[in-house]
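Note to self: keep these together.
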Amino acid sequence: MMKTAKILIVDDEKVMQDSCEQILKKEGYKVKVASDGKEALRMFKEELFHVVILDIKLPGMDGIEVLSKIKEESPETPVVIMTGFASIESAVDALKSGAFDYLSKPFTPEELRISVRKALESRKIFFEGIYLRKELERQTKFDMVLGKSEGMKKVMDIVKRVSPSESTVLITGESGTGKELIAREIHKHSLRRDAPFVVVDCGALVETLFESELFGHVKGSFTGAHVTKHGRFEVANGGTIFLDEISNISLSIQAKMLRIIQEREVMRIGSSKLIKVDVRLIAATNENLAECVKNGKFREDLFYRLSVVPLHLPPLRDRKEDIPLLIDHFLHKYNRRSKKQIVGLSQDVLKALMQYDWPGNIRELENTIERAVVLSKSDEIELDALIYHGISSGSSLLSPIDGTYRSLEEVEKEYIKTVLQARHGNKSQSAKVLGIDRKTLITKIKKYHIQ
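Structure:
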């Protein structure tokens, strides 16, 4: 139960104000009162209230009008209407306008307590609904299988020790090494495990919408703001927020991020109301943030705030003993999905996979095995099944030429060119096939002068 909840009571009768205030304060809630609609709306704009108890009959602006304005600015705030006119019509009007519940005067203290408890639960469910929709959009493609090498044992040891704490964690590592999976594992074993785990992909958000996505906005605050939007920090309240590719945020957003970490409060765009948030922060990047600090691209104070517990994930090329385990896992996974019964890989395939350096790491390996399972014509994966559709099966990128294997750069350049051709130059789709992010793909296109 949210005993620290703030409740606003709006009634022009002093006796009703005092009695409701005493009942709710005894329950441990923080309570404020207003005598008319104008005062109530002023207070509501300045402070965050978790529940509003609102009389339908007020001097000047009536309760239904106040209700509409509250729901317009803050649709997640439940409003309980009080009415001395216990008629079906007034109750229906209030519920149609967005009221959560209504109480007919006179009501008992227990009726008020029950209504407030239900209202707070409805607010919690509202945010859980947003979180669940976001989670469905971001189902991770591969499971929590990262390997049993010495490097990964050290990583998991740190994860085990840091999870129960409230410390901020900075996870570093190349794209595809499993940074989000590690962040989820930390959350899963934390004291916040039953609360939301909210992901923010800093590399995928447009700069102009970034602030709105993180902090939210109120209706009408800018062109296109047709409804009030709840920021990711609000949605993550009580849980964990994971900021992936944190190095991509601008210096102005970094300053606001620093303030959130220090003060634990956010302000929606277009609002002057501070909203307290209780979140654990986990950040990740595939860049060297210390170098970004030296180059003036990242704030030094924010860097130190984020890297309380640094955690580095080694690339797959540095822990190749994990490759057979990962292959076996992905083989079983895509056998089930494709309804196939592939029993294994030929020795040539295993040798080629072990020799390849996997610039896209685990994500690229998974994509490779998925394609191989789909393209394989027998119960054992051969070299031609590794090659993406559009490459001649008669010449494998991983096969030796005149007994000599090609360099990694030659293989990578040819493979990128082939995938780009197969995807008609679409960089986003090609990056997905390659198991790398779009920014990395563009860097490689420039590096290899691919047209």
